[in-house]
Specification:
4-stranded antiparallel sheet, protein dimerization activity, RNA Polymerase Alpha Subunit, Chain A, domain 2, Alpha-Beta Plaits, binds iron/sulfur cluster, 3 domains, single chain, Gyrase A, domain 2, 338 residues, Plastid-encoded RNA polymerase subunit alpha, DNA-directed RNA polymerase activity, 7 helices, RNAP_Rpo3/Rpb3/RPAC1, binds zinc ion
Length: 338
């Protein structure tokens, strides 16, 4: 098994970073496994406990604790912390498994109101850990009216999004097949300039370009393709063409696996490259554990009980006969203009 990052682009935006990369050399299940690990199994930090000693604001204690719990925290420190359940302190809490902080805010009697922002008011004992936000003043927690006070302590712990969604380091991880687009120049040679322009404009993603001087249609940005099939539509004026204009395939690597394009959007709690490295590490550790388990007991696989959902037998796999036997197309999900 080999994971190969073919192309890697990083874009920084207000709330975090976006990473786009190509993955090849792995099958669909591994690629989807990587996506799911990025979503749910990267350890990050979150506020786990809030002790409120004074709250005269209009928000109930529970609401303030809930709002604090959802604050994203920069989480590079998570790699060096223990999970509370695995810590030698047995979850009681120590400097190896938790970080503490506090927030004290008050609206003076001579002011109408004060907005309390987490980034300004929350003091965390570890300078490596801080709230992340796209706003300058950070996340707005509550507004205090004249003479109202808020005083609380927090405990930050490490966990993963399988336990609670607030630990998710990404806003989204999108995965799609990389495209292999083959144009048929002979088909375009039989179209006039007007029809070529119309055909190029049909693609909603700007994949194709047309040069009227050379009468050439080219693939400008194959990676932008979303497999919408617009370019192979046979609606007028592109019905009854003598030959196909384009073939759009899912791209395969030399080892016969499909290639994938990933788009990972971080919330800002971890650098997006770190999310990718951590996901690969988590997946590798899982496979290592499985391999070790099976090598200790080679017959373990035979004894694994399967559990049909709701008592129903598992549905048989039905091959797509129509797709497989389509003339001249070996890939059952590729489509051609006909
Ligand atoms: S399927 Fe064709 S029309 Fe649709 S995005 Fe891809 S290239 Fe463009
Ligand atoms: Zn501990």
């Amino acid at each position: 098994m080999k994971v190969k990052i073919v192309d890697c682009q990083r874009k920084t935006h207000m709330a975090g970073e976006t990473l786009e990369f190509q993955l090849s050399g792995v099958d669909n299940s591994f690629a989807n496994g990587l996506r799911r690990v990025m979503l749910a199994e990267i350890p990050t930090l979150g506020i786990e406990a809030v002790t409120i000693s004074q709250n005269t604001s209009v928000l109930a204690d529970e609401m303030i604790a809930h709002r604090l719990g959802l604050v994203p925290l920069f989480s590079m420190k998570a790699r060096r912390l223990n999970y509370a359940r695995d810590c030698p302190c047995q979850g009681v809490g120590c400097e190896m498994c938790e970080i503490k902080g506090e927030l004290h805010a008050e609206c003076p009697a001579n002011e109408h109101s004060v907005q309390v922002f987490v980034n300004e008011s929350l003091v965390i004992d570890d300078p490596e850990v801080y709230p992340v936000s796209s706003e300058d003043r950070g996340i707005w927690l509550v507004t205090l009216a004249r003479s109202q006070k808020l005083s609380l302590r927090i405990v930050i712990r490490k966990n993963i999004a399988k336990v609670h969604a607030k630990f998710m380091p990404v806003a989204t991880v999108a995965m799609r097949y990389a495209t292999d687009i083959v144009l048929n120049p002979e088909g375009f040679a039989k179209l006039d300039a007007d029809k070529c322009t119309k055909w190029v404009e049909r693609c909603p993603c700007g994949v194709f370009g047309y040069d009227s001087n050379t009468h050439q249609v080219t693939v400008r940005d194959a990676a932008a393709c979303i497999f919408c099939r617009e370019c192979v539509s046979t609606e007028p004026p592109f019905n009854n063409l003598p030959e196909p204009l384009v073939f759009v395939y899912r791209k395969k690597s030399k080892d016969d696996n499909y290639e994938f394009t990933f788009v990972v959007e971080s919330t800002g709690v971890l650098p997006v490259m770190q999310i990718m490295y951590d996901a690969i590490k988590v997946l590798r550790d899982k496979l290592q554990r499985l391999s070790t388990g099976l090598s200790e007991d080679p017959n373990a696989g035979d004894r694994i009980q399967t559990r049909p959902i709701g008592g129903a037998p598992t549905a048989p796999v039905v091959p797509n006969e129509d797709g497989i036997t389509r003339d001249g197309v070996e890939d059952n999900l590729a489509f051609v203009m006909s």
